[in-house]
Design brief:
This protein has 119 residues and is mainly α. Among the domains are: 47 residues, no CATH class; 36 residues, no CATH class. The chain is built from five helices and no strands.
C-alpha cells in the first residue's frame, strides 16, 4: 500500500499574547492578528479560471451561461445554486402567515400576485 502524502505545516509567526498567571488572556488582547489563513486551493482555482479565461477569451461565467442554454441539467444546477428553492420560500411564507391576521396575510398575497403576475 502506498503512503498518502500529507501537506506540510506552514510556519506560523510567533504571537505573544499577554496572559494572567492562571493562563487566562488579558482583556483587549488580539488572539489572531494576522487574520484567518487564506485557502490556497480557492486562490489557485481563481487564478486558473482567470488564466483559462484569458486563453479562451471568455470568462468562466460566460461559459457556464452558454452551457446552461444548451443543456437543461446545467441550467438546473446553476439555478439551484443561485435561486432560492420554491418550497423553502413557501415554508417561510407559511410560517409568517400563521403568525399574522387573516386580513394581513390576504393583503400580502394580493400584493405578491400583482407584482409577480401570478394567477
Amino acid at each position: 500500500m502506498a503512503k498518502i502524502k500529507t501537506k506540510t505545516k506552514t510556519k506560523r509567526r510567533a504571537n505573544k499574547v499577554a496572559r494572567r498567571k492562571n493562563g487566562q488572556i488579558i482583556k483587549g488582547q488580539v488572539l489572531n492578528p494576522y487574520g484567518r489563513p487564506k485557502l490556497p486551493e480557492v486562490q489557485l482555482l481563481r487564478e486558473a479560471l482567470v488564466a483559462v479565461g484569458k486563453k479562451k477569451k471568455k470568462s468562466f461565467y460566460t461559459l457556464v451561461a452558454e452551457k446552461a442554454y444548451d443543456d437543461n441539467s446545467v441550467l438546473i444546477a446553476v439555478l439551484r445554486k443561485f435561486a432560492p428553492d420554491l418550497k423553502s420560500i413557501e415554508g417561510i411564507f407559511g410560517t409568517l402567515e400563521s403568525s399574522m391576521s387573516d386580513e394581513t396575510a390576504l393583503a400580502i398575497q394580493k400584493k405578491l400576485k400583482e407584482r409577480f403576475g401570478v394567477q
